Amino acid sequence: CADVCVACPDLSHCGGGGASCVGACGGQSPGGCWCDEACAGFGDCCADVCVACPDLSHCGGGGGYCAGNCGGQVGGCFCDEECEKFGDCCPGVCDDCPKLSHCGGGGASCVGFCGGNAGACWCDESCCSFGDCCADKFAACGGCMP
């Protein structure tokens, strides 16, 4: 059943041995793993974090993993143009980053991509040399160094 880790947190696949978020939401579990908003970014969440603490944003209880991290990495998953190709996108990446090309946004804007690739164009210093900057590169990220 879906709530097996809430009912039986000592099962090995639920973290077992105190490594459970049951009763530890918002902080550190007795087993040392974490049950808070920051654990996804640090990659130190307990295995049952989203079962025991469904209200955390990275568990779907608010902004997703990628909220404010478009173009970057959150824990072991990515919120960028390449994640679909590599199969390592964070859950809800297209909800939080709709401008990514694989999310239907065309990826033609540097908003959220300064210093990197925005899909069809670039938002880094090298784009000035290669001539492949996004149209809004200068407005979104500033000019290129001479």
Short description:
With 146 residues, this protein is mainly α.
Describe the model.
- With about 150 residues, the chain is an all-alpha fold.
- It contains 7 helices and 2 strands.
- It has helices at about 5, 40, 50, 85, 95, 125-130, 135-140; strands spanning about 75, 75-80.
- It has a two-stranded antiparallel sheet with strand order 1-2.
- Strand 1 and strand 2 form a beta hairpin.
- The protein starts with a helix and ends in a 5-residue tail after the last helix.
* Overall mean confidence score, pLDDT: 76
Radius of gyration: 19 Å
Q: Tell me the strand order in the biggest sheet.
A: 1-2
Structural class determined from secondary elements: mainly alpha
Oligomer: single chain
> What's the number of extended β-strand segments?
2
Largest sheet: 2 strands, antiparallel
- In helices, the fraction of residues equals 10-25%
Q: State the end-to-end CA separation.
A: 61 Å
Shape: elongated
Q: What is the overall number of helices?
A: 7
Task: Bin the strand percentage.
Answer: under 5%
Unreliable stretches covering 5 or more consecutive residues: none
SSE succession: HHHEEHHHH
Question: Which descriptors would you attach to this protein?
Answer:
mainly alpha, two-stranded antiparallel sheet
Structural topology:
Layout: H1 4-7, H2 39-42, H3 49-52, E1 73-74, E2 77-78, H4 83-86, H5 93-96, H6 126-130, H7 137-141
Antiparallel strand pairs: 1-2
